[in-house]
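Please decode residue identities from the backbone states below.
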């Protein structure tokens, strides 16, 4: 079994960053979301944080620390919409996405590296797409466990990426103060300090028996395990995925229909590959087209029978695109999604007299096997061998 690869993505000052999209004149200034005229702070820009403002702080304390800050009333509908769009980006690279909150998520990349490249390449891709499409930044941590990935994303803040390899876990964790550990708050840190434990390395080398009186057998053992980066928790989506999709932003806006068609084929191919890997087939094909002005159109159609065959998904996606009649419009991004997914083994497909003995699905499976063994460039469709 290959080692797990977990990525933790955390939006930087999420609520405040979303508000700055509407108020670009406030960029570079202290902005506080919530807490006005009474209540608590929901989020604050890094300029406000530099003055000591923190989430959960009372508005009175925040005003005392940052008297010239701009207070903004929260707009939760906007935050939810942006969060859903970002999760769609995550699901374009892996189906195993666990949303930890509205502004952070864990992704299991173990099966994604064959198709999308190294963990760092995937992390930088996600960061670039989120920044390009949502005009906000995020920090990415990558590691062999959820715990290491979470600590790495904290180390990457703001707007950075930190990858910790399995061999580098101890070297990364042990110099850190115990306060940097996920789940270690002020009270726990104080208990550790009273035991003479100030760094994660100190904790790692403390016998478990010495931790038991202060923390009990369970918590003491867990702290010891985490200090070595050991974490058995898996990335678990809260609900089964009912659709699979892929999307791609062009390097530059294009009005060339052939370029758009090629990218639709690439996205159909990528989506179909993921469906076959999950042993799923689907009936509804949806395309999304985002234009240079950031407006977006989506169109859907339902096939006669469920499929996971690339050429069938692409044919429907292409038909939907042609119906739009936007050949000369400048396009920024395209996406292909298949919905109404069901287990492939639960679906009977009526064979046709004209079906060849070995068809496109068999070709797709052969390509999948080659890619799984030799990497994403082992077998490629000729039209897709050049990036446009």
């Amino acid at each position: 079994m290959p080692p797990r690869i977990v990525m933790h993505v955390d939006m930087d000052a999420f609520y405040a960053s979303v508000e700055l999209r509407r108020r670009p004149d406030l960029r570079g200034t202290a902005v506080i979301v919530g807490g006005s005229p009474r209540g608590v702070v929901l989020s604050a820009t890094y300029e406000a944080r530099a003055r000591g403002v923190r989430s959960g702080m009372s508005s009175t304390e925040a005003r005392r620390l940052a008297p010239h800050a701009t207070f903004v009333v929260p707009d939760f509908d906007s935050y939810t919409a942006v969060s859903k769009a970002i999760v769609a980006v995550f699901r374009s690279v892996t189906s195993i996405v666990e949303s930890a909150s509205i502004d952070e998520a864990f992704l299991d990349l173990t099966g994604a590296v064959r198709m999308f490249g190294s963990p760092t390449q995937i992390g930088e891709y996600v960061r670039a797409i989120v920044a390009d499409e949502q005009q906000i930044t995020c920090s990415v941590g990558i590691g062999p466990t959820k715990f290491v990935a979470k600590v790495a994303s904290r180390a990457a803040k703001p707007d950075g990426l930190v990858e910790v390899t399995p061999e580098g876990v101890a070297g990364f964790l042990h110099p850190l103060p115990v306060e940097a550990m996920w789940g270690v708050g002020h009270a726990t840190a104080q208990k550790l300090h009273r035991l003479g434990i100030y760094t994660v390395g100190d904790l790692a080398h403390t016998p478990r028996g010495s931790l038991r009186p202060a923390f009990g057998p369970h918590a003491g053992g867990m702290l010891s395990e985490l200090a070595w980066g050991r974490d058995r928790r898996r990335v678990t989506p809260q609900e089964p995925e009912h659709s699979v999709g892929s999307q791609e932003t062009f390097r530059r806006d294009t009005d060339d229909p052939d370029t758009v068609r090629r990218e639709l084929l690439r996205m159909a191919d990528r989506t179909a590959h993921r469906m076959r890997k999950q042993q799923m087939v689907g009936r509804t094909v949806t395309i999304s087209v985002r234009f240079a002005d950031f407006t977006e159109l989506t169109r859907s159609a339902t096939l006669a029978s469920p499929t996971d065959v690339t050429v069938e998904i692409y044919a429907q996606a292409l038909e939907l695109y042609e119906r739009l009649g936007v050949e000369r419009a400048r396009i920024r991004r395209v996406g292909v999604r298949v919905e109404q997914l069901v287990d492939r083994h639960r679906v009977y497909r009526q064979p046709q007299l004209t079906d060849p003995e070995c068809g496109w699905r068999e070709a797709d499976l052969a390509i999948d096997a080659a890619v799984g063994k030799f990497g994403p460039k082992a077998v490629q469709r000729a039209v897709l061998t050049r990036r446009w």
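Observation: The chain has a mean pLDDT of 88.
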